[in-house]
């Protein structure tokens, strides 16, 4: 409890002079969130996008993956479902966990010690049985985002190198961590642009009218800063 007043003061300072209604350019927003990152740890820079879709319809789903030019600032733990030569390929590429039936038992038992799950196509019958465990966590491998593949080497490299998967949620929102507050403004700006452009280019056939409605940046402990959608991306 003794630390509560200090935390409150710090948060109040970081939120000061932020107009929640004002739309900023992307560069302005990056500068503001970076300046207001005052936690004792390296805060994650997050981007949130409100999209003009209703995800309950199949033709309005938004999902994809983007490789950020400057990485995410953290090394993802990667698990791979594979056997034989492909399992060895995954290990050589730097996968943290590689297995088949043994990995199934670990995950089915509730232990999920990884950030990304990759599988070779022949393993999907086994992986599919974990749908109730992996699905809610957004970890089910999918060929659309390159996590069901025979090229496990590339998939592991991409996951370790800063590939970020995105998927629209029920309220039509997509969000992700795209870097760290310790990054330079230019590095954050490049990463945000890459992410926003990738989402904008994933506009589904069922989406009508304006696709990217709102964009906001924030850090783990900082305030949200609204970005003018027309400035954030040209792929409307």
Please characterize this protein's 3D structure.
By secondary structure, the chain is an alpha/beta fold. Helix content is 33%, strand content 20%. The protein contains nine helices and nine strands. The chain has helices at 4-15, 26-35, 84-93, 101-108, 124-127, 131-134, 152-160, 185-200, 229-232, and strands at residues 44-51, 63-67, 78-81, 97-99, 116-119, 163-167, 173-180, 212-219, 225-227. A four-stranded antiparallel β-sheet has the order 7-1-8-9. Strands 4-3-5 form a three-stranded parallel β-sheet, with helices on both faces. A two-stranded antiparallel ribbon has the order 2-6. The longest helix has 16 residues, at 185-200. Residues 1-5 have low confidence and may be disordered.
- Radius of gyration (CA) equals 19 Å
Main pleated sheet? 4 strands, antiparallel
Assign a percent range to the helix content.
25-40%
Shape, please? globular
Judged by helices, strands and strand pairing, the structural class is alpha/beta
Mean pLDDT: 89
H and E order: HHEEEHEHEHHHEEHEEH
Let me know the number of strands. 9
Strand residue percentage: 15-25%
For this entry, what is the oligomeric state of its chains?
single chain
Q: Which sequence of strands runs across the widest sheet?
A: 7-1-8-9
Q: Stretches where pLDDT falls below 50 for ≥5 residues? A: 1-5
- Distance between the ends: 47 Å
Task: Please work out how many helical segments DSSP would assign.
Answer: 9
């Amino acid at each position: 409890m003794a630390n509560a007043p200090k935390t409150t003061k710090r948060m109040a300072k970081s939120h000061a002079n932020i107009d929640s209604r004002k739309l900023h350019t992307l560069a302005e927003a990056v500068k503001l969130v970076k300046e207001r990152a005052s936690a004792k740890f390296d805060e994650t820079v997050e981007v949130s996008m409100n999209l003009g879709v209703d995800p309950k319809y199949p033709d309005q789903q938004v999902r994809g993956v983007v490789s950020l030019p400057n990485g995410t600032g953290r090394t993802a733990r990667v698990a791979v479902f594979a056997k034989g030569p492909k399992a060895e390929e995954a290990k050589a590429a730097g996968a943290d966990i590689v297995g088949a039936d043994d990995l199934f038992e670990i995950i089915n038992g509730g232990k999920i010690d990884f950030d990304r799950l990759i599988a070779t196509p022949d393993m999907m019958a086994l992986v599919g049985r974990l749908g109730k465990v992996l699905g809610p966590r957004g970890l089910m491998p999918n060929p659309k985002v390159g996590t069901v593949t025979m090229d496990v080497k590339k998939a592991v490299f991409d996951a370790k190198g800063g590939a970020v998967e995105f998927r629209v949620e029920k309220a039509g929102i997509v969000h992700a961590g795209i870097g760290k507050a310790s990054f330079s403004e230019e590095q954050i700006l490049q990463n945000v642009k890459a992410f926003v452009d990738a989402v904008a280019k994933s506009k589904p056939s069922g989406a009508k009218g304006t696709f990217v409605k709102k964009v906001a940046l924030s850090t783990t402990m900082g305030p949200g800063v609204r970005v003018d959608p027309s400035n954030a991306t040209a792929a409307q």
